[in-house]
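Researcher: Next sequence.
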Amino acid sequence: MIVFGASGHGKVIIEILESTGVSDIEVWDDAEKPSVWQYPVLKPFHATADLSKLCIISIGVNATRKRVASRLSEQLAFGTAIHADACISPRATVGEGTVIMPGVTVNADTTIGKHSIINTSAVVDHDCVVGDFTHISPNATLCGDVHLGEGTHFGAGATAIQGVRIGKWCTIGAGAVVISDIPDYATAVGCPARVIKINEEKL
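Model: Next structure:
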């Protein structure tokens, strides 16, 4: 497996892969960086690169991860990284490139899109739809039938009650409690969550 990005997030992904018995791991980064533990950091598409290996993009910023996925997709296929201690329903669907960290629960008939991050001890309950390039932060909770749009960052410890719809490229602040729908490109904070701005730069 290729881990693209020699960052702290990359370290977590390496340990996720190790937890499931993956030992053939390469770390790539555009910048010159020191090794990550026993794994040397190599330039992307180096001379001896095995392009049959699957790739995980270990970049925490959603918009950057989307750009890198577009750049790499013509030459590489993407895998998933699901920690051995995550509890994933066999009736849930997880898209390529997605990372699921330890302690996560994903319940029945939930769909998680491509290149998303479901961070440590988050809960995604039944019938949720989570878009591509999202990040559900540590200890966050999506109750049943929540829809989360592409690129949205759902903050640490935040909660969305059952059935709400949160738009694309939103930012939901840490500890927020979302009890009503949130429009595209919004930043919402507080308990209950209220929209404090609509982002002008739309992806």
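Model: The chain has two domains: 2-78, 81-197. The longest helix spans residues 8-19.
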